[in-house]
Amino acid sequence: MLIIKEFLFNPFSENTYVVSDSETGECAIIDAGCYYADEQDILSDYIIDHKLKVKYLLATHLHLDHNFGDRYVYNTFNVGLTAHPDDAFLLDNMKEQASMFGIQLQAPPIPISQNVHENDIFKIGKYTLQAIHVPGHSPGGIIYYCKEEGIAFGGDVLFRGSIGRTDLPGGNYNQLITGIREKLFILPEDTVIYSGHGPSTTIGFEKKQNPYLQ
What we know:
Layout: E1 2-9, E2 14-21, E3 26-30, H1 37-49, E4 53-58, H2 70-77, E5 81-83, H3 88-92, H4 94-100, E6 112-115, E7 121-124, E8 127-133, E9 142-146, E10 151-155, E11 158-159, E12 162-163, H5 173-184, E13 192-195, E14 201-202, H6 203-209
Parallel strand pairs: 3-4, 4-5, 5-6, 10-13
Antiparallel strand pairs: 1-2, 2-3, 7-8, 8-9, 9-10, 11-12, 13-14
């Protein structure tokens, strides 16, 4: 069984996910947003208590609220960061990103250890996560899609009734809308999208109800 554990972290109310295979204990951490020490403890306690083996640290994109905990995960579980190279510039200016919101980074961000590209596959036990590149919220936005379970981890590309903002550096509204329509709306309508903020949604719901995509 594929187990999905969701955590709500940091001042931006970001969703961090631990996705694990119940048989092997292999797991991926998707968007490690843990900023405060108690959030870091919550994440590591869950992994240790459930005897999970962290195989991947996957980033849907490299905005600071989704990556506060990258260094902690690296130091604790010795797993490097996997992200799209088109977002690497966001690591270089993460200190500036933080200052815009009055936040102080506890340490410099870790660099990308493994680049991810369209259709790359990440195996967690018997399950696979396929990378789908959807730029627009950021140039390197990645969706991690598990066809076997009919789920996808969408970061800030698509929300319930909304889409990711496109006014940040590297954002592009037309790219985002086109990517959602051409790459996500071709998925089965019952596909569940676990978003980077707020509740989950489905492809079918967004096709019918999302005002940005009508």
